[in-house]
Design goal:
The chain has about 180 residues and is α+β, with helices and mostly antiparallel strands. It has one domain (about 5-175): 2,3-Dihydroxybiphenyl 1,2-Dioxygenase, domain 1, CATH 3.10.180. The protein has 4 helices and 11 strands; from the N terminus they run βαββββαβββββαβα. It has helices at about 15-25, 80-90, 145-155, 165-175, and strands at about 5-10, 30-35, 40-45, 55-60, 70-75, 100-105, 105-115, 120-125, 130, 135, 160-165. The protein has a 9-stranded mixed β-sheet. The radius of gyration is 16 Å and the shape is globular. The chain starts with a strand and ends with a helix. The structure holds fe (ii) ion. Fe (ii) ion binds near residues 7 and 75. Fe (ii) ion (FE2) binds near residues 7 and 75.
Length: about 180
């Protein structure tokens, strides 16, 4: 299994200031934004890579000034569905780890913590894109075909559900415009 870097999600105090910096200074574009769950805090997704839905995410729930409470999670992509399942199996044998399988429709992810409590997401891309944020728990005991059928049924009525490649092609055209 190889973990490829994908994105980080930060807790921030002032999303307007942070958004201005990341977009106008660093050149990111907002790719999606919305409430987490029903009535939860807003998450803002940004990218300047057409093949990444988000490279940076921000949630403005940070209360304290200390520097060590700003990362919600870092995320790595794996190349095969079985990598997620095998890692889940490995993690189940580690004491003190909480594992949460969550699909964003465009991913089948597991979230877990390292020994000091830092959040980690490891995910496999599904063939689809769908507007974010989205999240539904999934059953890690499913095989790949079952999992893909479940994802399609669970997310196909959500907004902008469609083939992943169409989304990346559209983003590439927007970034080159
Ligand atoms: Fe993530």
């Amino acid at each position: 299994m190889k973990l490829s870097w994908s994105h980080a999600v930060l807790y921030v105090q002032n999303k307007e200031v942070m958004l201005d910096f990341y977009t106008n200074v660093l050149g990111f574009q907002v790719t999606d934004r919305g409430e987490i769950g029903d009535g939860g805090p807003e998450i803002i997704f940004m990218s300047q890579d057409p093949d990444e839905h988000h490279q940076i995410g921000m949630i403005d729930t940070r209360k304290e000034d200390g520097p060590s409470n700003s990362v919600a999670h870092v995320a790595f992509r794996v190349g095969a569905f079985e990598d997620v399942r095998n890692l889940n199996h490995t993690l189940e044998k580690v004491d003190g780890i909480n594992i949460m399988p969550l699909s964003h429709g465009n991913t089948l992810s597991i979230y877990f913590n390292d020994p000091e409590g830092n959040g980690i997401e490891v995910f496999w891309d599904t063939p689809w894109h769908v507007s974010q944020p989205q999240g539904k728990p999934w059953d890690v005991s499913m095989n790949e075909q079952q999992a893909l059928e479940w994802v399609k049924a669970a997310f196909q009525d959500e907004s902008n559900f469609g083939p992943r490649q169409d989304y990346h092609d559209k983003r590439r055209a927007e970034l080159n415009a």
